[in-house]
Amino acid sequence: MTTLLKVDNITVHYSRLAAVRNVSVDVSEGEIVCIVGPNGAGKSTTLLTISGILSPTEGTVTFGTKNITGANPENVARMGISQVPEGRHVFTALNVEENLRIGTRMRRDRGEIEKDFNMVLEMFPVLAERKRQSAGKLSGGEQQMLVIGRALLTRPKLMTIDEPSLGLAPKIVDRVYEVLTDLRNRMGLTLLIVEQSSERALKAADRIYVLRSGQIQLSGNAKDLRDGEKVKQAYFGFTEGVKHVGEVAF
Amino acid sequence: MGYFIQVIIDALSLGSLYALAALGIGLLFGVLRLINFAHGDFITLGAYALIVPAYGPNAIRFVADFHPVLLVICTILIVVAIALISEFLVFRPLRYASAATLMVGSFALSYVIQNLIIMIYSGRPKSLDLWSVLTEIKFDVSGVDIALLPLLIIAVTLILMALLVLFLKRTPWGVQMRAAAEDFKMARMLGVRANFVISLAFVLSGALAAVVSLLFEVQTGILTFRMGTPLMVFAFIATVIGGMGSLVGSVVGGMAVGVVSSILQAGLPPEVRGYRDVFVFGLVILVLLLRPQGIVLSRAARERV
Does residue A213 carry a pLDDT above 70? Predict the structure, then answer.
């Protein structure tokens, strides 16, 4: 498999504080890769650096063969990385259809857009019913579907998603992951997902990285880490006293 | 009855000018979180574009002698060009600065423009007669003369607002602008170009300023290097009481300020009429105390870029 995204040894500072130190992440074509870790571990920082919202003080980000370190977010998007950031970020001033179509403006393949648009509406029928409604009126789960659909309509080579489960009922989270896995299986979409719950990550991902205190503590195939012991150790930095590794704690 | 109609029309026409100026400020605030105090100077420059840049005491007509259609187009193009140059030289380097820094930048720009005008055109007021026939045509309504100009100002304002709404609601560029105004980072992550959207906002803001210049020039017939400043001040107040970041709020605020000023002008006893603005600003303070978020609630004042 060819490497699609290579994050090489990046360090990212917020003013003088390093949020992420010497982090390296690889994503190959067609893979689902999860970055897990507790709050404040630097997961979102890593994603925002990939999409060009933040610039690393050290290290490089390579997408395909292009060095995209410090590129503008709009140029990163135009190269084929679509990010669904934490907190969904629907445009409430726009209706559902306008939200969906906004990312299609940069596409060169005009003829394919309508096909993709219909595909997204088929995938998420609730969006079709509410095309003309303000996106702010949708429920949390519907908004998550909307932003995933919106990202898909840019026809990305790589989609990065920050905490797709945040603030959603478990049943809806199941549905979101179902959709994501389906996208990979059917369309070969490559996914980089940030997740707090390591259980979810181990279930959905091919490979995972555990990030804590701004550094990668562990990485490997999800298959090999399935029992969760090593992950737990890396996630908390200790195992004593951690009896149950559940949805909430993780 | 006639007098009443006259007051109402004057009030709406003044409100229209404020609303147009406030829209120019509101558009930039929406995408850039910039409160552009140089907007008044864009308006001034639109009027000065009508004459030959010369230091002498008299205004030598230049664009002012063009065919009206060409005159409007030229004035708009000149102000739009100045707005774009300002963006490039002043606001682009400050893009990631705080809103306060941007505002101070706009003060500096305003100061530079005013002093350039003094250097090039001299600081003396110059009289320039432009389409004064519009102020002379009058209709008789129940014994009171109503001039054509205020009606024209109201009509132009309504048309421009309708065009702006159509642009923002119906065109892809307009949708991009609305998206960027709400969440600039997210819009960029979907491929919306920051430079493009911000330039577009400056183009629209400059075009609106140019129209205000022309309407205001026809009304007053005089050019001064600070002619846009009072308009800017009232328009800024309009955006604040209307609700920063909401374009509807800018229009409502502009109309409110214009109408209140005109009604006070007509209704105050003659001895205190000279202090009209004290009453206007007093009312503004009252509005801010009672409803600090502005008349129209907006999604505004969030983090920028």
Answer: yes
